[in-house]
Design goal:
Layout lengths: L6 H18 L4 H4 L3 H11 L4 H14 L3 H6 L2 H8 L6 H16 L8 H4 L7 H12 L8 H10 L7 H11 L5 H14 L18 H5 L16 E11 L4 E5 L10 E2 L2 E3 L6 H13 L5 E2 L8 E9 L4 E11 L14 E5 L1 H6 L4 H13 L1
Parallel strand pairs: 1-7
Antiparallel strand pairs: 1-4, 2-3, 2-8, 5-7, 6-7
The structure holds iron/sulfur cluster (SF4).
Amino acid sequence: MMGTPKSETLRQIRRTLLDWYDRHRRPLPWRDNPDPYRVLVSEVMLQQTRAETVKPYFQRWIARFPTAEALAESDQEEVLGLWSGLGYYSRARNLHRTAMIVRDRHDGRIPDSVEALRKLPGIGEYTAGAVASIAFGRCEPAVDGNARRVLSRLFDLEAPTLDEFRQLAGALVADKRPGDFNQALMELGGRVCRPRSPDCESCPLRAVCLSRARDTVAFRPAPRTRGTIPIYVIGTAVITSAAGQTLLACRPDNGLLGGMWEYPGLETGDSEDPIDSACRAVRELFGDLPLRSWPEGGEPIDELADIGHVFSHRRHRYHAFGFHIGSEPVPDLSSGNWTEARWCSTEALAELPLSAAQRKLARIVAARC
Ligand code: SF4
């Protein structure tokens, strides 16, 4: 167990880091006007996602939902549509539910304490600390992966526990400008104290950095041993009608990609090929309707695409096959794999919330038409 560093060291780190932040902080759209709702939206979007990626999503989101109330009044399909491509879609659903709770139980105002923030859907320790400190000036730590890396190196900690990080960050953050301090620590981790190539020569904390002094930077923090990421193969059915419309289906709210729309697909079982699970998806929706290959003249059932997508904890491989149905029958949703299905024109499809992989598949399908 590490001890708490001396208060003079902590003061020096705080002062140096805030000076650096004042001179070097990036102009980011959520920093212009850090009202609590905007801070909350930005912090949720920034979970697992780089600031550069978040910027355009944040601007579109705020233009469409400028307040928690506007978000609470919208429907989930539109919310997921605006989030489309940003990934980790449970964040969007939780933000939507949070807005409704804020409207109904908090008089439209985002709560200002860590305890109350943590009761909102999808808000963990980090996000609660970030919102409380940045939006309300509360003296609360906010330790993300970047901040953890800086702290490990600054204090030369090989494998600190979460409690040790909390203790250190809690001792470092001060009443004066806690939100700026937290952002400074994270920004230093993102831009200077990078995982593989830390720029120690231009780091404002180099004079007090223990791992730099001990030449252990490359070993801090100790690398994590990762397990193998499982691969799931999905047989996917691109079903078109004689009128040129394509069938899209909506996934149940719970679980991975909940509430998102997709070309219907099912995970391929042990003794199946992807074409078998794609045919199973078609049968679940339409029973034994006669099918033809698509596009015309292709193989008996034409393979349109093979797309990979990496989530944080699993990989998906979508094998997509084209099917053609003369009419546009009403799909049977009793299997529970989808909650809704629609025959869509290209324009209607563009409006639906699709994941990045499904959007890519849509582009391939459009190019084949
Ligand atoms: S001196 Fe190097 S290792 Fe230490 S905090 Fe700065 S960038 Fe990171």
